[in-house]
Design goal:
Elements (H helix, E strand, L loop, with lengths): L1 H19 L19 H17 L11 H11 L4 H9 L1 H8 L6 H16 L1 H23 L5 H14 L1 H6 L7 H13 L10 H13 L6 H16 L4 H14 L5 H21 L2 H18 L3 H18 L4 H15 L5 H17 L8 H13 L4 H21 L3 H24 L4 H15 L12 H11 L1 H4 L3 H14 L3 H18 L3 H10 L8 H12 L6 H16 L9 E6 L9 H6 L4 E5 H24 L5 H4 L4 H9 L14 H9 L2 H8 L9 H15 L1 H8 L4 H11 L2
Length: 744
């Protein structure tokens, strides 16, 4: 440790002279013969990573335990902005924003990771070491300022950067040597110390002050927050260095949602005007930040937004057109337009502005620049979400026929996906009225069915059908009587599409339709089973055998709370019939463990994964038990994120009760796709979208744990010998959770 510690301390002095002050060679941009960078920054990063490894090791951390405060104190000095960063960020504000994002990596980020490891390992001692080091370095910066040092602000900025980066740990700490009130005073002293300096004098320090205010807004005095809100608004309206505007935007992002409207409204018009001007100048990363800030300003302005909609909306639409080929940016812009839509008095003027613009685009999609038709469909879907009938009717008149044509004829998968979601939104918002608007309900229904046929065509590539399930779900939820005569054809088409599907998300969405049809057939679920048995399926005895084999295999991959509720409860309904067909179906149970040794790729190809084969009723019971286990794990992890699963098994009666009260909101990660647009839209898709389309479905209100537990109790009491026989094929964990459910 002595040589390492000596290297650490002496390296700081070299780093200060070379990288931070720029007085000596920092070896930036030089590489060895292997292509590895030889800069001083790279060396310091590796030094931090080495120290992090020591700190995180239970055995090795003891060697450094006596010097935690000194380690933190020295590390804070390493986190100062380098001369190269000052030059780069002054020339390119986009690089400043990019380097500040969590995804970037640098000496500063590596140092923060070391400090996080110190806190994780040493707990309150580590947190207090951070606070003490920040206080000492702050005092040093004061002395440097008094001595007229030109670089005094760097150490002050490093202190604020350190505290802001560790704000979550500091705010949540329960055993700080200083109480939360004193911590707040300490932070307030730091941020108020330099409010008198000019924006141009220390732009990066001012940017960091704004960021620190945002990070500690939950503990800072309301009067000080109001002061910095006003300062941030002024900074955006003034001619100040771009980094200051970046810091001001970050502060507004955090402060606007929670600030009293009486503070915001007097300045909101100036803020709208300034942010709109910034939109015209911003590019790349700064544009995203300005859009996010504008979105929060619109939400905070609320009633005031109507008076400026005519100014803001055209500018935002121009930004949208300019960045239409970037699906991530397009989504950010649409989020801002949605905030305008949801503001009082803005929906109708915004609709009048958008529909005449996108109508001609959708009517001639092949003549548009790449991405414009697809993006216009996204924009239309946003307008339709939760819209009143008159808006939906207007959108129908402008665009419905064009959307149908795109679904029927487009070969562009992005267009097909967006058009499918758009049709789902039309049905969800228009419902039965939708059929009457053309004057010929039969024609409209045929158009919807034609779209269904195209989307379920087994020859259509899976990416094009990606949202077919979401669309068909709206058809059977909102137009059930019109769909009833077509159920047999629909089921046959679903089976063919499922057999040709390769994308897991598509399989899951199609299986969801089968599950919803099971619910809709209740209490005559056996009739739905008979329907499946009557429909042939290539390579299988019938569609029931195929669908249940695929369903039980994919159930663990089903995503979203709604889908899990519907599919799991549908499996219970199917099992409750004890239909004679169940006895004829065997499905994959669990993977068979190999005899040992490393599974190489060649071995995997020559000997693919083997599964046990078990009766279908046993597999369904196992899946129901797995659902309870999943909910249990979720409940217990929420109760104590730090507790180990082994400790839980010793028995927690309260957790068992919580299990049966849980709503079953376990989340599953979404798959990724090669198509950039699909990836962008899946990453930005959240429960709000599903809430809009599925909020009226009563199955969304199922308490899954209670539902499964009630089913198990009823099923076991109706046929105990069958139940006990099925349980014999389950794992110990599955039997234990079923026993717990039966004895609650």
């Amino acid at each position: 440790m002595r040589p390492l510690w000596h290297t650490f301390e002496s390296s700081l002095q070299v780093y200060l002279r070379s990288s931070i002050d720029g007085a000596e060679d920092s070896y930036d941009g030089r590489y060895d013969s292997d292509g590895e960078e030889k800069s001083l920054d790279t060396f310091v990063i590796q030094l931090f990573e080495f120290l992090s490894t020591i700190v995180s090791s239970r055995r090795l951390s003891k060697t450094i335990a006596g010097n935690v405060r000194e380690l933190v104190y020295q590390t804070v000095a390493f986190l100062q902005i380098t001369e190269q960063q000052v030059h780069t960020w002054s020339m390119d504000v986009n690089q400043f924003v990019a380097d500040e994002d969590e995804g970037s990596y640098s000496c500063r980020i590596s140092g923060i990771l070391l400090l996080e490891e110190v806190i994780n390992t040493f707990g309150s001692e580590g947190i207090n070491a951070v606070v003490d080091a920040a206080g000492k370095r702050f005092q040093e910066s004061q002395r440097e300022n008094s001595a007229s040092s030109l670089s005094w602000w760097r150490l002050r900025e490093a202190v604020l950067f350190t505290l802001a980066s560790l704000s979550d740990q500091l705010v949540e700490a329960e055993d700080l040597r200083i109480d939360p009130a004193n911590l707040a005073k300490f932070i307030e002293q730091l941020i108020m110390e330099d409010t008198g300096i000019g924006y141009h004098e220390c732009p990066f320090l001012y940017a960091r002050i704004f960021t620190a205010v945002a990070k500690f807004s939950s503990v800072i005095n309301a009067g000080i927050l109001e002061h910095f809100l006003n300062a941030a608004v002024r900074a955006i309206t003034m001619d100040v260095p771009p980094p200051v505007k970046v810091g001001a935007c970050r502060a507004l992002l955090q402060l606007l949602p929670d600030m009293n409207s009486s503070v915001i409204l007097p300045q909101i018009m100036n803020l709208f005007s300034s942010l709109t001007d910034l939109l015209r100048q911003a590019t790349d990363e700064t544009l995203v930040l300005v859009l996010e800030t504008l979105q929060q300003a619109i939400k905070a302005g609320h009633e005031a937004s109507a008076s400026i909609e005519s100014i803001i909306s055209p500018v935002i639409l121009n930004v949208w057109v300019a960045h239409i080929s970037d699906p991530f940016m397009s989504i950010d812009v649409i989020d801002v337009l949605e905030a305008i839509k949801n503001s009082p008095g803005c929906l109708h003027p915004l609709t009048s502005r958008i529909l005449p613009f996108i109508g001609p685009i959708l009517n001639k999609p092949h003549q548009q620049p790449e991405g414009l038709a697809s993006g216009s469909l996204d924009l239309l879907t946003m307008l339709l979400k939760g819209a009143p009938s008159d808006i939906v009717k207007t959108a129908y008149d402008f665009c419905f026929a064009a959307v149908i044509r795109i679904v029927l004829h487009s070969e562009d998968h992005g267009e097909l996906q967006n058009a499918t979601e758009c049709l789902a939104a039309f049905i969800s918002s228009g419902r039965q009225e939708l059929l009457t608007w053309s004057g010929d309900p039969g024609f409209t229904m045929r158009s919807l069915l034609d779209a269904t046929s195209r989307l379920l065509n087994p020859d259509l590539e899976g990416s094009g059908s990606l949202f077919a399930g979401k669309y068909i779900l709206q058809l059977i939820l909102h137009l059930p009587s019109e769909m009833a005569p077509h159920v047999q054809d629909l089921v046959a088409a679903l089976v063919r599409r499922l057999q040709s599907a390769e994308i897991l998300a598509l399989k899951g969405s199609l299986l969801l339709i089968f599950a919803r049809l099971v619910h809709m057939s209740y209490p005559n679920v056996d009739q739905f089973i008979n329907l499946l048995v009557s429909i042939p399926a290539d390579g299988h005895e019938n569609s029931f055998t195929y669908v249940m084999t695929e369903w039980t295999k994919q159930q663990g991959e089903i995503q979203s709370a709604y889908q899990i509720k519907v599919t799991t409860s549908a499996l219970a309904l199917l099992l409750s019939t004890r239909h004679s067909e169940f006895a004829k179906v065997n499905v994959p149970g669990s993977p068979i463990q190999s005899n040992g040794g490393i599974t190489t790729r060649s071995k995997a190809r020559s000997a693919p994964e083997q599964w046990t084969i078990i009766p279908l009723p046993m597999k369904i019971l196992a899946l129901l038990a797995d659902t309870l286990i999943e909910i249990q794990e979720q409940v217990l992890s929420n109760e104590d994120e730090d507790s180990e699963w082994e400790e839980v098994h010793e028995g927690d009666a309260k957790a068992e009760k919580d299990l049966l009260r849980s709503a079953g909101t376990s989340q599953f990660s979404k798959p990724t796709y090669d198509q950039l647009e699909a990836m962008a839209r899946f990453e930005n898709q959240d429960d709000e979208v599903d809430d809009h389309l599925l909020g009226t479905d009563p199955l969304n209100e199922i308490n899954l744990a209670s539902y499964v537990a009630d089913f198990l109790l009823k099923f076991s009491s109706e046929d105990r010998p069958l139940f006990d026989n099925l349980c014999q094929g389950l794992t110990n964990a599955q039997r234990n959770v079923i026993h717990m459910a039966l004895n609650r």
